[in-house]
Amino acid sequence: MPGALPGNGGIKISTSLKRLIYWELGIPVTLLIIGIYHGLMQTIYRSGVIHASNFAKLDYYQGLTLHGVINAVVLTTFFAVAFGYATVVFYLKREPNKAIAWTSFWLMTIGTVLAAVAMLSGKASVLYTFYPPLKAHPLFYIGTAMLIVGSWLPLYDFSRLYVQWKKENPEVKTPLAVLVTIVNFVIWFVCTLAVAYEVLVLILPWAFGWTTTINVTLARTLFWFFGHALVYFWLLPAYIMFYTILPKLAGGKLYSDLAGRIAAFAFLIYSVPVGVHHQFSDPSITKGIKMFQGLLTFGVAIPSFITAFTIAASLEYAGRRRGAKGLLGFFGKLPYLDPNRFLFAYLISGLFLFIFGGLTGIVNASYQLNNVIHNTAWLPGHFHMTVAGPVFLGIIGMSTYLFSKLSGKPIFLPKLNVIIPYLWVIGILIFSTGLSWGGLIGEPRRTNLGLTYLDPKNELFTPEWVPTTMLALAGGIIMTLAALFFFIVFFGTVFSKQREEAVLELPVSEALHDEKRIPLFDTFKPWLVTMAVVIAIAYTPAILDSLRNPGPGAPRFTPDNPTPALNNKTPSTSKPNLDVKTVSVLKK
Ligand code: HAS
């Protein structure tokens, strides 16, 4: 079958589970069409090609919110759940509890619909970080909370299946993919507790108008408790692919299985207690805590360095097996353009981008350097080489792969499929170069530059940002083209005829050094305890600071108005909105 990958024999799964995975892949990929469109629009607004606050009746910030929420939250969460089911079921050869799995699906889907209604109606243009004092329609928060709660449920089932399996196989190493999946969902559960508290206890009563003000620092601190761990929740499914799939596709073996386990547990410990590095410029949190979490941030880079060396060694082994000579000759012997191993192309492209994504992340983490780049275009430059790099490429490549295998349908246009990731890499490199360069010369992020700084008729016109935003536009167009090709391949596969037996099958890399089972790296308890202790040490002072120095408390604002919103009402125009209660708060 064209587009088939070398596998290990698939397993038959129930129709219900198959349907669940189809929908969990299909819904976010369909929404991605809106997400990608708004990404392109960002580059158009920002480069000053248009000088308008909206296009096709959608406002700039509404589009940016849709872009961030769909691409970074909905797509990633649905995929993590679908891929989690695929890996756990494939390796443990056990079916999940269907009632739990479908309840999770419906919670996530209804939550997404509610948040989408709020965003599309223009009442939730608060970006994916929804920082107070910007207030969205309550439906946005309720929808987001449902999406998160829905994505908690699989952890229960994954753990239950793992415990069952472990009882029967006490001396067998837990398959690496299952171990990392469980680590990932534990990180997700722990970090989302903070954002759940932020939404349910702080934001919703304030958004409904039941409380007048909100502690902005506390809300931001709780958000970033979640927000940085969130990026590893995005990343770890891609890491599972790098460790357990890529070496096999390269024609080699995983250099060290133990390295993957160490990296996973390091993520468990370091992913959460680093969120304050997003708040280096915030008042209220004292500098000792910022310094401490800044240092822990260098800790969270360690598992990625371990991964870089382990995967590079695995690729070297594969290249030499294919006859490579010399120090770096192995790079020339890898199956970059083999349509039958198209996932290799997606994964290697993601790894390549992550070299730059990682380096820029380390710049961000440096307390002093962060002053230069915070809130500039450098930031989207960084995160498009991480979340739109290994994460996005892993997601779209694996979605096509799983869909094809689970339906027995051949990949549509396999030769086009294999060039998509390289086109995406070219686009991202140009796009992120424009953003990073712009950021270093002060270009702000999250700003419709075309309205002022990139309008030659405006007194604020800043010609230095013309080449930087033009580069970003050129990169954005190439990325959109790559995405268009992806939609053609994905939906072409979905609508083609079944040719083979439908099975769940993942390529499995053998370990070159299959180290003997070390119980410490095959159990969760000591790591969970360490995780709790490190979080308590890092976050107790940050939360206490947020409570001690809360500022005056902020009333509600909507994005279209610089004055606070009336109780329970979203203002429609730029008229002042002060009511008596709010004026008294402001006077205080
Ligand atoms: Fe980040 C802000 C620091 C990783 C995403 N980050 C963001 C934001 C996002 C994001 C979305 O310290 C913006 C949030 C917002 O809206 O405000 N980040 C880091 C650090 C890392 C890091 C230290 N970030 C990620 C990942 C993300 C992501 C992963 C998404 C998936 N980030 C920050 C900081 C900020 C920040 C600050 C806040 C800044 C501010 O002021 O607001 C590290 O985890 C990175 C470690 C990575 C490496 C790279 C290892 C390389 C590998 C590839 C090897 C390649 C091979 C193949 C083998 C050390 C594994 C070679 C093949 C060839 C063909 C050559």
Quick recap:
The chain is mainly alpha-helical and 588 residues long.
Topology overview:
Blueprint lengths: L14 H32 L7 E2 L2 E2 H33 L5 H23 L17 H31 L7 H32 L8 H29 L1 H5 L3 E3 H14 L16 H35 L20 H24 L1 H7 L4 H7 L2 H21 L6 H27 L24 H30 L16 E3 L11 H24 L31 H8 L1
Parallel strand pairs: 3-4
Antiparallel strand pairs: 1-2
Helix pairs in contact: 1-2, 1-3, 1-13, 1-15, 2-3, 2-4, 2-5, 2-13, 3-4, 4-5, 5-6, 5-8, 6-13, 6-16, 8-9, 8-16, 9-10, 10-12, 10-13, 10-14, 12-14, 13-15, 14-15
This protein binds heme-as.
Verbal overview:
With 588 residues, the protein is mainly α. It is 65% helix and 2% strand. It is built from 17 helices and 4 strands. It has helices spanning 15-46, 60-92, 98-120, 138-168, 176-207, 216-244, 246-250, 257-270, 287-321, 342-365, 367-373, 378-384, 387-407, 414-440, 465-494, 525-548, 580-587, and strands at 54-55, 58-59, 254-256, 511-513. The strands form 2 sheets. The protein has a two-stranded antiparallel ribbon with strand order 1-2. Strands 3-4 form a two-stranded parallel ribbon. It is globular. Residues 1-6 and 568-580 have low confidence and may be disordered. The chain binds heme-as (HAS). Residues 129, 231, 234-235, 277-278, 297, 300-301, 304-305, 307-308, 311-312, 348, 351-352, 354-355, 358, 361-362, 364-365, 370, 374, 379, 382-383, 386-387, 391 line the site of heme-as.
